[in-house]
Amino acid sequence: MDIALRLEVEHLLARYAHCIDDDRLEEWPEFFTERGRYRITTAENFERNLPLPIVYADSRAMLRDRVSALRHANIYEAQRYRHVVSATLVEQVDAGVVRAVSNFTVVRTMHTGESMLFASGRYLDRIRLAGDGGRPQFEERVVVLDSRQIDTLLAIPL
Amino acid sequence: MDIALRLEVEHLLARYAHCIDDDRLEEWPEFFTERGRYRITTAENFERNLPLPIVYADSRAMLRDRVSALRHANIYEAQRYRHVVSATLVEQVDAGVVRAVSNFTVVRTMHTGESMLFASGRYLDRIRLAGDGGRPQFEERVVVLDSRQIDTLLAIPL
Amino acid sequence: MDIALRLEVEHLLARYAHCIDDDRLEEWPEFFTERGRYRITTAENFERNLPLPIVYADSRAMLRDRVSALRHANIYEAQRYRHVVSATLVEQVDAGVVRAVSNFTVVRTMHTGESMLFASGRYLDRIRLAGDGGRPQFEERVVVLDSRQIDTLLAIPL
């Protein structure tokens, strides 16, 4: 186990969580490489290899478009997320790339003050260690939700 | 504080969580030494030192039997767990053994898609650092649940 | 990123969580410097810079008074907390002081056995690395709750 490597990955995952939870969505695409892929799917579809992602993007430009759409819709104002990330396992693929798997839960708080456990699942990540500016970036982040009961308001990135 | 030691323990706890959450229960007994003890109890009984564990095993063979029984009953198909482990503290007992305490929460998702906070509590672990194959293994794992309201379906290991 | 520094901060946060969850409240003030500040507020008030904390103390003596009051009221017996702390980011301020931000969730279990997600939010900490006895201590801990719906029984420190 490479200690520095694991802590670098956990640091990336922590910064990502705070970026979303702090509503700094404009910075979110910068966590991905230029051709980075982002996908939200359910455990059921993931295991059956069904090509029905809830959200899909395969470039930073698509992620930026998504943020613009969210800002236009103003849905983001109505809710706030709180990410907990745990049990991260890191595996080196080659000198410049690692894979990581983590568990997560997200609590959602509405503007009314009502809080609920909104989502749980796994992050399956492929990370380029020295991306733009020498910082690690996601080549791929697959969000596998435990439940197929997805709130139709699902809008903020997970 | 020994950094490598703490990260090795956290790595063990993370692998254990994914083993159960991925439904790889047949691998679960391998996290224990041959005479490893596993116990689920409630905070109330634990503090009063009452010998009424909800689940008890004192060997890897008993853990394997438990997995067989679970597979036979097919209960495991109806539900899925998601573990979050946090606030791990590690204390060295001797050259080869450490104690660790962690907080955990478990979200359960039913096959219907319904999710709920299923359990919270503490892991109290005694870990042999160089177990079989040189990997760390539990000599003892005590799962202390915060609540005494236990779902009677409690079947999957925590 | 300084690995030892980050792990030392995470260790402090873990010890703090267990201190409260184990109901060792008399030790809680010792996590703060003599003039340490502790504040619980809501995200809404925090962002608007409103001076309406739910709980406020600006010395260890005030924290001790608070614990005495809690013990006298016996409210603490009726409930138990379980903290999960995640996504800690550490930033060095100067040689002896760091700032840290973390996400947290707290599950509350009543003496009836009923469990619920009680609170979620952020810890904003200012930590003196070599406080009393050479151990790190909080110069300031601000607990920013995601929700403004606060249980009026809010009594145990978060």
Brief characterization of the structure:
The structure is a homotrimer of 158-residue chains. By secondary structure, chain A is of the alpha+beta class.
The largest β sheet of chain A comes out as:
6 strands, mixed
Rounded radius of gyration of chain A (Å): 15 Å
Number of helices of chain A: 3
Name the assembly state.
Answer: homotrimer
Helix content of chain A: 10-25%
Q: What would you call the structural class of chain A?
A: alpha+beta
What is the beta-strand fraction of chain A? 35-45%
Largest interface: A-B, 20 and 26 residues
How many extended strands of chain A? Answer: 6
Q: Can you walk me through this structure?
A:
Three copies of one chain form a homotrimer. Chain A has 158 residues and is α+β, with helices and mostly antiparallel strands. Helices cover 25% and strands 42% of the residues of chain A. Chain A has helices spanning 3-21, 43-48, 60-73, and strands spanning 32-42, 55-57, 79-94, 97-110, 115-128, 137-145. Chain A has a six-stranded mixed β-sheet. Chain A is globular, with a radius of gyration of 15 Å. Chain A starts with a helix and ends in a 13-residue tail after the last strand. The B-C interface holds B 1, 3, 6, 43, 84, 86-89, 101, 103, 105, 117, 120-122, 146-149 and C 3-4, 7-8, 11, 13-15, 17-18, 21, 80, 82-86, 105, 107, 109, 112-117.
